[in-house]
Design brief:
By secondary structure, the protein is mainly β. It has one domain (about 5-100). It has one helix spanning about 15-20; strands at about 5, 25, 25-30, 35-40, 45, 50-55, 55-60, 75-85, 90-100. The strands form three sheets. The chain has a four-stranded antiparallel β-sheet, with no helix packed on it. The protein has a three-stranded antiparallel β-sheet with strand order 5-6-7, with no helix packed on it. A two-stranded antiparallel sheet has the order 2-3. Strand 2 and strand 3 (about 25-30) form a beta hairpin.
Length: about 100
């Protein structure tokens, strides 16, 4: 189950500057989207690429959206951008994705 959290983790204010520094090939992670912390069952690799489950559907993570470097938060995180048409979700683009430990 994905958990909606905003750009920073109120329980860990010491990570604020780290969150603000995160970037993918698509740009800064915290600028246009809120972060989702993903449970281990809501992200996977398939055919050598990451996928995430958001809003009950699987979405491919573009290679350029993967954030490299250590994950100081521990859990997998995605920064989705939603596309709606007539109040219906038609697409989710992943701006940034950071894999977790899958423990």
């Amino acid at each position: 189950m994905a958990v909606d959290v905003h750009a920073h983790d109120a329980a860990h204010p010491e990570l604020d500057s780290w969150y603000e520094s995160l970037r993918s090939g698509k740009g800064p992670c915290c600028s246009d989207a809120d972060r989702y912390a993903l449970s281990d069952v809501d992200w996977e690799t398939k055919d050598g690429r990451y996928r995430v489950r958001i809003a009950g559907q699987w979405w491919d993570v573009p290679d350029e959206a993967v954030v490299t470097g250590p994950n100081r938060a521990g859990r997998a995180m995605a920064w989705p951008v939603y596309h709606w048409r007539l109040e219906r979700l038609i697409r989710v683009d992943i701006r940034c994705f950071m894999p977790g430990s899958m423990m």
